[in-house]
Fold this protein.
Amino acid sequence: MLDFLLPALFLLLPLAVWSGYKAGRKSSKKNSSGSRLSKGYITGLNYLLNEEPDKAIDAFIELLQVDNETVETHLALGNLFRRRGEVDRAIRIHQNLIARPALTGDVRKLSLLELAHDYMAAGLFDRAESLFTELVKEKEYRLDSLNHLVTIYQQIKDWNKAIDTSHQIAQISDVSQASKIAHYHCEIADDARISGNLKVAHDALKKALIINKRSVRASILQGQLYQQAGKNKEAIKSYRRIRHQDIAYLPEVLNDLMICYRLTGGDTDLLKYLKECLEQGAGVSVLLAVSELLSASSNEKTAATIITDYLRDRPSLKGLEQLIQIHIHRASGAAKDNLLLLHDLVIKLLEKKPVYCCEECGYSGKTLFWQCPSCKDWGKIKPIFGIEGE
């Protein structure tokens, strides 16, 4: 707490002294006003001497007159309070600034912006939305306000407003909004799927793929919708698209893709497709699927050879676990016992390791989030590649 109070007092004390000086000058003309202000200054000093810095700050803020000479101090104090988590104090300071008719228009706009940040920090999204909507009209605050409005709409899950606002950002910014907008359409599709409105879901996913043809999430959701409807060939087409969008996500649909192929009698085509994916750089999950298909056709020796060759170039615990499993079936006696022990150790290692990682902030975990829980960016969490991942 002291780390915060010292800079706050550093800001206030010189101006409080100046206010006390001005109060003394005025006291000769207006004794009542002068004595009141002087008393406030002395009260603040007493709080300091009694080691009550919080009360001292409140006393000095009350003493500090709002004018063009002190407005920057008020803004700085408001920011300090907000960063400290005392949003109610920050709101009072910024509201006090806005209520002063004598201040310039630029100061009022800046105060409105700070107050909007206060409301967001307090979770008062409706009030923050109102202020940012007003500030969108001002050129110097337009982009910042639109970005904060998108954040608000994400928080309250108003995806249509998030889409409209993101399109406005795209018109005035060099930063592409296509990926985010596609995710917002996917959110609409997911909500519609849960509520049983499949037409809305399909329409939203088509829009997502139009705005961003590389939207992996849209392809996954589209494949799931087709699969649930028994349209396995259409599901396969959607799932196969992921290979060209971002092959790192192929493991997310691998099991469903294999089910759809088997239901359509296409095991041979599936094996050919998966081998092509491996050549393109797919992860160890695809390798294990190839191994599973080969083992199912009584070709365990070939499966083991493929895994061994792969692991020489790209070591992987998941690959090692599958290779051990293959050899367990062919082993006996002490050799089998040793393999079982080694298999259990590898499984325990895998259980402790994260599966996904955010490329933006480094957040990791075992669940795929399309919006990172840490940095709030979209589509940056991917399966981990390497010895402990794919």
About this structure: The CA atoms of residues 30 and 170 lie 57 Å apart. The longest strand covers residues 356-358.
